[in-house]
Amino acid sequence: MFPFSVVPGSSVRRILSTARPDVVETVRRAYLLHHEGETVNPPSQFLRFPDKPSARIIGLPAYLGGEYRVAGMKWIASFPTNVAQNVPRASAVLLLNDYDTGYPFACLEASQISAARTAASAVLGAEQLAGDGSVGRVTFIGCGIIARNILEYMVARHWRIDRISTHDMAPSYAQSFATFAEQNLGLAARVTSSLEDAITGADVVVLATTAANPYIRDRGIFAPGQVVLNISLRDLDPVVVAEAHNIVDDVDHCLTANTSVHLTEQALGTRDFIKGTLAELMVGNVKFGTDRPRIFSPFGLGVLDLAVGMFVYRAAAGARDTEQVADFFAETTRWN
Question: Under a CB-based contact definition with an 8 Å cutoff, are residues 235 and 208 in contact?
């Protein structure tokens, strides 16, 4: 009566690697359902450690309605010091709960789901802000797994990219990313020696670092009309944010946890610098000119993880690529 299955990372990777355009449309649909009030997305819960100030584990509970009718939670750890051992910063699981009974029915490896929904969200935001995906140069500040996923999703969406630039505090990561772009995706790529060189002249700038505090403070560093994907959320000083056209995925969620936009709200005492949400932009309720840089700051909504998680779960179940756990629930009747 209450089956429970596990979808391992190998299955998740196989499904996601061949379905990037479908994942983007899945994320688009989740944003629209959120905009239509068909979701419940409480604040994320942060577990921090006194002796590990850079580390955290985050719980993202959510309910996604519409055609999904599923609840669940992503439990994702972020330990930036992992990268020194060449171990990914993030690890995660996603639990899916049946809406009628509340019983969990699946557990999925979710670091790849999280990266996929982040990349799909970034590409959706860029397409809304930049136009048709025809760009001269895309710059990546921070050259890790999230940056790689975003670039792969841009390519999957048939972006016409002339070249990419890479920049990272660890030059070897920037070089590895440039090599990957050239050898795996057939893109011209170069490593830039300075932050200013990386940003100047780029049509789209992707910020995908592990920065805990703002370090981009020059209010004139971004050009009018330039698109900035503020994926890591804490790279930009409030003076930079305040002079841009700003789009977020959810105002209340993004203006928390000392993100750059949250710091800007504290500095200005108002939220008026936020033009609106990505969903509002998609349905045509937000418009702006090219007189300022355009910044998209997605906090990352749990409903997106549910949408992509359900996509993966259904694909895995359809291919019989799940691992069933017999008798996971030992007691499923109140009285025998």
Answer: no
Q: Token match 């990219």: residue? A: 161
Q: List Cα–Cα distances, 84 to 36, 76, 133, 170, in angstroms.
A: 43, 19, 34, 10
Instruction: Please name each of the domains of the chain with its CATH number.
Output: 5-113+302-324 (3.30.1780.10), 130-297 (3.40.50.720)
Q: Rounded CA gap, 123 and 138, in Å?
A: 12
The whole-angstrom distance between residue 315's C-alpha and the CA centroid of its chain comes to 21
Q: Region 293-316: what's the mean pLDDT?
A: 97
Distance CA 8, CA 122 (A): 25
Cα 305 from Cα 317, distance rounded (Å): 18
Rounded Cα distance between 100 and 174, Å, is: 48
* Strand 134-141 versus strand 160-167 pairing type: parallel
Which residues, other chains included, contact 258 with Cβ-Cβ below 8 Å and sequence gap of 6+? 234
pLDDT digits (tens, 9 = 90+) for 183-204: 999 999 999 999 999 999 999 9
In this structure, the number of other CB atoms found within 10 A of the CB of residue 217 comes to 11
Q: Supply the mean pLDDT for the chain.
A: 95
In this prediction the pTM is 0.94
